Amino acid sequence: MAAITWKEDYSVGVGMMDNHHKQLFTLINQLYEAMQKSATDEAMKTVLPGLLSYTKMHFAAEEKLIREAGYPDLAAHLTYHQQFTSKITETIEKYKTTVLAPTVSLVT
Predict the structure, then answer these.
(1) Which of 39, 56, 63, 70 is the most exposed place for a label (fewest CB within 10 A)?
(2) Could you tell me the CA-to-CA distances from 68 to 57, 61, 64, 74 in Å, in that order?
(3) Which pLDDT band, with edges at 50, 70 and 90, does 31 fall under?
(4) For residues 51 and 56, what is the distance between their CA atoms, to the nearest angstrom?
């Protein structure tokens, strides 16, 4: 079962952006499904970095469009983008340091 489902109500009326948003929904649903199956390692090693990469690409494209369009709330929107990518990055880094970090043996 999907965590989120695309609805036409979410459309921004720009085909490329709608397609990007649909792909983001797909990636978020892949992450959700992996976590539901207790496949956290797979999700953290592949799905989450893929989500981060795609998100950065999408945000760059979206920011270009909204700058060109003179979007009135640009600063707040850019802040949201930064917060979103930072949250993903922090999650990846936290996972790397808590789960993937080498263990230290106290036995010599």
Answers:
(1) 70
(2) 17, 11, 6, 11
(3) confident
(4) 9
